[in-house]
Amino acid sequence: MVRFCIRSCSDRPSDLYRSTVFAVSSGHGVSGVAVIRVTGPETSEAVKLMTKSDNLPKPRYASLRKIYQPSTGDLVDKGLILWFPGPNSFTGEDLAEFQVHGGSAVVEGILTSLSEIDGLYPAMAGDFTRRAFENEKLDLTEVEGLADLIHAQTEAQRKQALRQMDGHLSQLYKIWSKTLLKSVADIEATIDFSEDVIEDGILTNVKNSVNKLAKEVRNHLEDGRRGEKLRSGVNVVIAGPPNVGKSSLLNLLCQRPAAIVSPLEGTTRDVVETAVNIGGYPVLFSDTAGIRQSIDPVEKEGIKRAKSKISAADFVLIVHDLSKYKHVDIDGLLESPLRMLNTNVDESTSADFDENIEYLMILNKADLITNNLAVQMKEAFNTKGVNACIISCETGDGIEDFINILSQKMKDICGDPVVGNPSITQARHRFHLREALNSLEIYLRMAHDGFEDHDLVLGAEELRIALRELGRITGNIGTEDILDVIFRDFCIGK
Amino acid sequence: MLRFTRNFCYRLGCDSFYDVIVVGGGHAGTESAAAAARNGSRVCLISHDLTKIGEMSCNPSFGGIGKGHLIREIDALDGLCGRICDLSGIHYKVLNKRKGPAVWGLRAQMDRNLYRSNMQVEIKSTPNLSLLQGAVVDLILSSDGDKQLGRNYVLHNGSIIKARSVVLTTGTFLRGKIYIGKTLSIFLNRDVTNFIDHEYEIMDPLGNRVIHGTPPRLDGRTIDYKKLVIQHGDEKPTPFSFLNRAVKIEPAEQLPCFLTLTNSNTHSIITRHLHLTPHIKEEVCGPRQYLLFMQYCPSIESKVIRFRGRNHQIFLEPEGFDSSIVYPNGISCTLPENIQKAMIRSVHGLEDVEIVQTGYGVEYDYIDPRQLKPSLETRKVSGLFFAGQINGTTGYEEAAAQGIIAGINSSLMVKGMSPLILDRADGYIGVLIDDLTTRGTTEPYRMFTSRAEFRLRLRPDNADLRLTEKGYKVGIVREQRFEKMVKIKTKFDKAINTLRELKFSESSWKARCNLSGMRHSVTKVNFFFSGLEMLINSRVSLSDISRGFPAEFRDIVEDDYLCNRIEIEGSYANAIERQNKDVSELRRLEYLALPDDLDYTRLGFLDEEEKEKLSTVAPRTLGSASRIDGISASSLVQLLKFVKKYKQIHT
After folding, report:
1. Residues 6+ positions from B468 with CB-CB distance below 8 Å
2. B458 pLDDT band (50/70/90 cuts)?
3. DSSP class of residue B457?
4. Residue A152: its pLDDT value, please?
5. For position A388, what pLDDT does the model report?
6. Does A433 share its domain with A387?
7. Where is the tRNA uridine 5-carboxymethylaminomethyl modification enzyme C-terminal subdomain domain (chain B) (predicted)?
8. B159-189: b or e for each residue (b if 16 or more CB lie within 10 Å)?
9. In a domain, B585, yes or no
10. Residues contacting B400, CB < 8 A, separation 6+
11. N or C: which end of chain A has fewer CB within 10 A?
12. Do residues A205 and A259 both lie within one domain?
């Protein structure tokens, strides 16, 4: 007699609580077209929200639609939507495919929009395959092939993404997990060992700690804005004294005469903006009026606008005319690169710039000095540890290095779309952080009323949820970890 | 085969062929034997001393936080310990009463003698269950196919007891030794070396070797109670069993406990003599072959070492009506006799105390429970089950919980039926067994509520609604209990549905039901609240709601017991709803069964570490595979393939 190891008293799991998940299914990095799949019971609702329409596209036909971010109503992209009602779909459930432009900004935008819809979750590794499998939609070879694809979302990849996230960020998430783990352990200790643990003080400490953590997470979510930059473009401002070649640089970057150039100082008076793709990132360059003392009211207005642009910039290219420096004296240049930009034009417009604005020094007109001097200048900057590019807009010398450095900068600002698909990582991190924050805030509201009115177990549940969400970013935190902290910090046991 | 020395045979008759043999008469053994017998199997329980059946060898209490949950679940499956407790409890106290009902810890002090005799009466009157006294010395595997249990078992003197499955619940007897101080006092089960060797052969690799300390037992007549803090039990005791609305011993007759504290004198006596205790010494200088600082049941020595300068509680617990012995809970130790005396006499209120029995250390091996299937059957030998402390757990309740599952499944196996397997969303029993069989344990495992992901739904109050029907379906819950549960469930469900359907705004609720001083729910910002959601509020009761809707709740409003249960359900309803997604995710993975005999070493897509881990655990389902640390998601997807293959073959 064959004995089955299939559950004895369970029927097929019900679909009542099946979630709806989404993921990029077209591989990593920048590609011409990106495919994002959504599957599960909320799919039709998601499509309706994303297309601002109550009508679903015709099943199994490619339909061109405008795609919006439901929370803001902003247009994200125009793309093809394919609607496969279950069970005739890859997963056997309702499924929709968004075929959109492959730029990281668009992909990020779609993922963010989807994650903001109630009941939608970023797919976990293997989710799509598992659903397909459960609904008898896969044969063996298919499972095999898909395993490779899914590899992109494995634990190893998660770790890699965490590693490649800038060190500061991964450190931050880990510290948060650790802080929260301690709070969870404290609360769990008062629950599981109420005879051994004296509660007084613990609840207050936990409340303070959670409050501080919630603040940090909230600020972090509001601050980063990387995804936003990816969508709307990074604001890069070209600034510097008059007639150093700022407009020439802009024209060189966009490969067309976007700005008027002339040998005369003060040619550019208004801000000239151009969107350029730098290494796959959308960058919005703003060429500004050269900054100097001026009495011309038009030029003054231009300078005022330039300065306000600089204040709002994500990144500033400070351009100087190298030919004005006949010998290696860069101290003046470096004393405070931004002070030059602070030159009082008019008392009323002289807002000081944030010294923290990120910038890159561009030393133009290298063709006008000797090679030797250029090399010496370069070395002088290196010794000072300052990023500087020596270029010539006239001959194109040094432009390649400059573009590489600039791409790297844009990558730092936006995240790297080539490595482990960071737009996914990014959206996923934000999703889990938001969920964690939500639970922390519920806990705080309960703690505020006091746990005489609220069940501490429900409060503890919120903290456990928050810890699990953080764990999805930093690696799982299990019961044993909680127990370890409890037994380390409390003397427990009869 | 089991070989053992026969001293005494109880009701053996001429029938020496059984369906199930249970070896051991402790808390795992009794539940095992009774469960298999309830299921209709002919069962023989073999113990080296039948008078010790139902003995509480350690602390004189049952239950606690997490442990009380287990007792309720065992009771829901028609197990014994809850009912026996209610006949023998002399001091009932629900712990954690200030927190939510999900973590209330049902607990009671027992009269040791009453518990033992009540358990023996129960066991002796259980149909289909025979008792046999003797030491089992060997377990003989059949010659046909080396993975089959022999279906017959041999006594030491030549007598053979045959059975189709065997449950081993031998507790601390695996290479067991008892120490007082560092002096080896006795070898437990010294005459069963063959048997032990055989167990090693079957169970490989081993888990860990541990030493448990026990406290010295005190003569209560020499305690100065006037100096101590008295602790009364609950005015209205909460019974363990769903069958009881009251416990046997009247609250007025129940006995109090007392509380005292260690002090710096006590601590210095202990620290000065640490070199005389076997387990601390090994920790410092020996190879780490013993697990010494057991966190979950720490000895007073380790508490003093790890938490310097702190005073530790000692609960002085009565052992029964007819006993003057007092059990000082909180100071288990392995110190020599004279040091124990000095130590205990340094404690406030115990200055003149006499020790009745010196505290001793028990040293034993436990097996690595990852060699067991979730049914608690060994993977190596079909028909052989392990339950209780031998699997690396501590506590009567943890032992009993495994016992009932091993008992049910040994019987179901004989009948050729699928085993009863509880998952992590079914109950604490499911959490316990899943933790043991998929993660193993590095020290004796103890139940905590924090181990349960679905703590809000796995409550002591609803264990019957969760489990009784499951038990009834496989035939271990008797008719009477099932009917009782169904009656409650019908009323319960009806009321819950009614509450769900009543939806009003907050002000409307207040007006209709005349609620005052009510705060609204934190987790929801909805305008409308269902009646169920109103119950989340600790200041709203079902009788408040029935004021506004007398017709709807007419038939239950008088029933305090039922109202209370509904209120508890209501207070967690929203949070449970939120967890449902996680539960169905869990179950979906649990539905994907992996073949038992999958050879992981031959799967190329696994790395070496994964191969080793999967081979050790042999997960039953994709779900348990996913809970093993360090198995990558892509390997899990590859494993889907084998699920598929398996399904094709078997369906």
Report:
1. B76, B77, B78, B242, B477, B481, B482, B485
2. very high
3. T
4. 35
5. 81
6. no
7. 570-641
8. bbbbbbbbbbbbbbbbbbbbbbbeeeeeebb
9. no
10. B27, B28, B30, B31, B70, B71, B74, B79, B80, B81
11. N
12. no
Structural domain includes residue A393: yes
Please report, as a single letter, which amino acid is at residue B394.
Answer: T
**Parallel, antiparallel or unpaired: strands A359-364 and A388-390:** parallel
- Asked if B255 and B91 touch (Cβ cutoff 8 Å), the reply is yes
- pLDDT-derived band of residue B240, with 50, 70 and 90 as boundaries? very high
Using CB atoms, pick whichever of B448, B583, B588 lies closest to residue A134.
Answer: B588
Supply the pLDDT for residue A139.
58
Report the distance separating Cα B331 and Cα B328, nearest Å: 7
Give dist(CA B521, CA B527) in Å, integer. 11
B337 touches B313 (CB < 8 A): no
B95/B29 same-domain check: yes
Q: Nearest-CA neighbor of B421 among B185, B160, B620?
A: B620
Pair of tokens at residue A431: 């999703």
Question: What residues in B contact A16, CB-CB < 8 Å?
Answer: 580, 584
- Name the residue with tokens 């030998």: B381
Query: What residues in B contact A3, CB-CB < 8 Å?
Result: 413, 416, 418
Residue showing tokens 């703003």: A286
Confidence of residue B639 (pLDDT cuts 50, 70, 90): confident
Chain B residue at shortest CA distance from A125: B633
Count of CB pairs separated by less than 8 Å, A with B:
193
Is-contact B402 B433, C-beta < 8 A?
A: yes
Tokens for A163, please give them.
Answer: 């590693």
pLDDT higher than 80, residue B146: no
Q: Are residues A248 and A388 in the same domain?
A: yes
ipTM: 0.87
- Tokens found for residue B617: 């655990």
A172 and A258 share one domain: no
Structure tokens given for B631: 């198995």
Which structural domain range is residue A18 located in?
A: 2-134
- Residue A298 neighbours by CB distance under 10 Å: 12
- Give residue-wise pLDDT tens across range B270-309: 999 888 877 654 443 333 334 445 667 788 888 888 788 8
Taking alpha carbons only, the member of A426, A99, A57 closest to residue A230 is A426
Are A129 and B634 within 8 A, CB to CB? no
Two tokens, residue B413:
């196996």
Q: What is the pLDDT of chain B when averaged over all its residues?
A: 85
Question: B434: helix, coil or strand?
Answer: helix
Q: Give residues with Cβ within 8 angstroms of B118, minimum separation 6.
A: B54, B84, B87, B88
Higher pLDDT, A221 or A64: A64
The residue among B445, B446, B447, B434 whose CA lies nearest residue B392 is B445
Whether residue B496 contacts residue B534, with contact meaning beta carbons closer than 8 Å, is answered with no
Residues A104, A190 within the same domain: no
Q: What is the DSSP letter of B146?
A: T
Q: Which domain holds residue B263?
A: 217-363
pLDDT of B351 = 96
Please tell me the distance in Å from B308's CA to the nearest CA on chain A: 10
> CB within 8 A of A124, min separation 6: which ones?
A21, A153, B633
pLDDT higher than threshold 90 for residue A337? no
Q: Which two tokens stand for residue B67?
A: 């442990």
* Interchain proximity A493–B59, CB inside 8 Å: no
- Predicted confidence band at B92 (pLDDT cuts at 50, 70, 90)? very high
pLDDT value of residue B411: 97
Report chain B residues whose CB lies below 8 A from the CB of A140.
641, 644-645
Instruction: Categorise residue A319: left if φ over 0, alpha if ψ from -120 to 50, beta otherwise.
Output: beta
The pLDDT value recorded for residue B540 is: 85
On whether the CB atoms of residues A360 and A388 are closer than 8 A, the answer is yes
